[in-house]
What does this fold into?
Amino acid sequence: MYDITRIKGWPMPVLNELNQPHFDAMGEGKVLVQHCPDCDTWLAPGAFVCENCGSTAITWRQASGRGEIYSYVVMHRSFDPAFEGLVPYNVCLIELEEGPRLLANVVGIANDRLAVGQPVRAVFETAGEGLPLLKFAPA
Ligand code: ZN
It folds into this structure.
């Protein structure tokens, strides 16, 4: 078992300056991602340098919350005890309309109805002890 902080059994993200604003914004019902003002490129959280121009002048910006399924898998086996009661569950790579791709669950649709290109919108749920979670639902 890996060493990770848990609250009520749920694994918690390791927060740092490269991702904390993203997680904090979930509690406010916002999708906050990084943005490079030097070349106007949107970036997925965790970037310390712009993948397009190499600038380190990264800022945070609110995204629309709209996007589409870029890829997905359906997990039929849990690799963490916290998720054993959830299988089968999906893990989707969502491409936001601004460009960055985020991993998230898509809810409100059967796993066998998921499709690449499915339009989705951000929804917010809670897990563990009130941990806000960004998920997506069909748009
Ligand atoms: Zn840039």
